[in-house]
Amino acid sequence: MKVGSYMKKLEGKISIGRITSNIRTEDYVSITVTDKNSGCEAISATMELKQFAQAITGLGHVDCTFEFNDSGMIGKTRELTRSNIAP
Questions:
Q1: How many domains does the chain have?
Q2: Neighbours of 47 (CB within 10 A)
Q3: I need a labelling partner for 76 at 20 to 30 A (CA). Which of 33, 41, 50, 84 fits?
Q4: In this structure, is residue 34 part of a structural domain?
Q5: Which residue segment(s) compose the domain that 22 sits in?
Q6: Among the listed residues 60, 31, 58, the one whose alpha carbon sits nearest the alpha carbon of residue 46
Q7: Strands of 65-68's sheet in order across
Q8: Quick check: is 37 in a domain?
Q9: What are 22-51's pLDDT values in tens digits?
Q10: What percent of the chain has a predicted confidence (pLDDT) above 90?
């Protein structure tokens, strides 16, 4: 796939956290990407610690589970308007 033909360049923030849970048998890593303009979470991915370690040490393509925001809000600018309401 050519870069630029299907991909849109946006600014945002990435957050990586280790999640410890009594419900799941193993701890896991949660990765979220938030769009700067809209403030919406664009992608949320989870993977086991072992998979995360393999990914950041250069193993290449590692399996994960992810959700993406398909609302159409990503890349749009969030606008806040204030109105005065007279009594």
A1: 1
A2: 19
A3: 84
A4: yes
A5: 12-62
A6: 31
A7: 12-19, 28-35, 41-48, 65-68
A8: yes
A9: 776 678 899 999 988 888 888 899 888 888
A10: 14
